[in-house]
Specification:
- The chain is mainly beta.
- About 5% of the residues lie in helices and about 50% in strands.
- The chain is built from 1 helix and 6 strands, in the order ββαββββ.
- It has a 6-stranded antiparallel beta barrel.
- A hairpin with a 2-residue loop joins strand 4 and strand 5.
- The termini are far apart.
- About 15% of the residues are buried.
Length: about 130
């Protein structure tokens, strides 16, 4: 097996959505809160997986494989990965526990750039949301 730089295990920050309910009983989001880090390996989803998840209404672009699931993420959590001067963000659409042994978890994610509060422009760069 040959690995190039960036293909090994990387440290992702796990963010969860904090939600409450209004006095009228409607859900209201308070943003994202950090809940530790996980070690995972990032790969692109295969065309078959992309089509399968698209049919279910949950588009995916990548897979993240986490070894040793002590800090397990859930669907709709966000994983962030520092990438030079920017931060890549991945919204978890679903997960799979191969063998049901909890040795590793496969997260099916969609890479996003529009999550509120997560895009931090580099000095001199224009924020694309404006």
């Amino acid at each position: 097996m040959f690995l190039v730089p960036g293909q090994g295990f990387q440290t992702f920050t796990r963010l969860t959505r904090e939600t409450t309910t209004t006095p009228a009983g409607r859900p209201w989001g308070n943003g994202l809160t950090e809940h530790g880090q996980i070690m995972g390996m990032l790969t692109k989803a295969t065309p078959k997986e992309v089509d399968q998840w698209k049919q279910d209404g949950h588009p995916v672009t990548h897979k993240i494989v986490q070894w040793l699931t002590d800090n397990r993420a859930n669907p709709q959590d966000v994983l962030t990965l520092p990438d030079g001067d920017t931060t890549r963000t991945f919204l978890i659409q679903g997960l799979r526990n191969p063998g049901e042994l909890n040795h590793c978890i496969v997260y099916y994610c969609e890479e996003r750039r529009d999550l509120n509060g997560l895009y931090h422009p580099v000095d001199g760069e224009v924020d694309p949301r404006n």
